[in-house]
């Protein structure tokens, strides 16, 4: 695939605060900008490390943060809605999450995950900031709790989407965006590319989920925001449009959704 150099790309989901980036976030962000990726959203996965996420955002122009606890996180502080609301007031925090349900590894923890997810939905509605939702082996329950909790009031994104078109359509009906990661470039992801073809252009986002899931042709490497243009190139091919159009549209969608992010 030939990658053009559009005005800007936005990586809507990454973890550049993780220890995987031993050289530090500044070096990662420098490479990101060299690749025309002008903005990125650094995602919280637990409250213990949230200060590190917030510091990355505070120290770098064009980088924003979320606050939340990943459904797989087990040993740290268990947040309630009040705690999330308080932390959401931190400078450059533009969303609530990463939250959701993941029954793949620990289906026995479903009740705890559901309680945690409800708290995130409540907090997001109270502060009017979008949710960043992770779902794995739990799509039906995820959608049920989104409906019951009124997640349509705050909106958000189904990140690193790998589900069926029926799941995507249900999320879209609740006002959510759909974000595609490097998985959409994988050889065995034909069904996912078919979903990506159908998502309305004004609900489409791109991400890396760095340091995970590097896209083809970089699969197997440590992922980073500089690689998100490869996701855009795949979507452009799938949707029969230009890379510039995907970059511009997904950037606009990001700022429309994450209203607290300055362009």
Task: Report on this structure.
- The protein is of the alpha/beta class and 263 residues long.
- It folds into 2 domains: 125 residues, Metal-dependent hydrolases (TIM Barrel), CATH 3.20.20; 88 residues, no CATH class.
- The chain contains 9 helices and 8 strands.
- It has an 8-stranded parallel β-sheet with strand order 1-2-3-4-5-6-7-8.
- 51% of the residues are buried.
- The model has no long low-confidence stretch (mean pLDDT 96).
Notable characteristics:
263 residues, alpha/beta, TIM Barrel, eight-stranded parallel sheet, 9 helices, 8 strands
What is the gist of this entry?
With 263 residues, the chain is an alpha/beta fold. It folds into 2 domains: 6-43 and 177-263, Metal-dependent hydrolases (TIM Barrel); 71-158, no CATH class.
How would you write the strand order of the largest sheet? 1-2-3-4-5-6-7-8
Task: Calculate the mean pLDDT score and round it.
Answer: 96
Domain count: 2
In CATH terms, what is the fold-level topology of the largest domain?
TIM Barrel
Number of helices: 9
Categorize the overall geometry.
globular
Main sheet summary: 8 strands, parallel
Succession of helices and strands: EHEHEHEHEHEHEHEHH
Strand count: 8
Question: Spans of 5+ residues with little confidence (pLDDT < 50)?
Answer: none
Give me the CATH superfamily of the largest domain.
Metal-dependent hydrolases
* CATH class categorisation of the largest domain: Alpha Beta
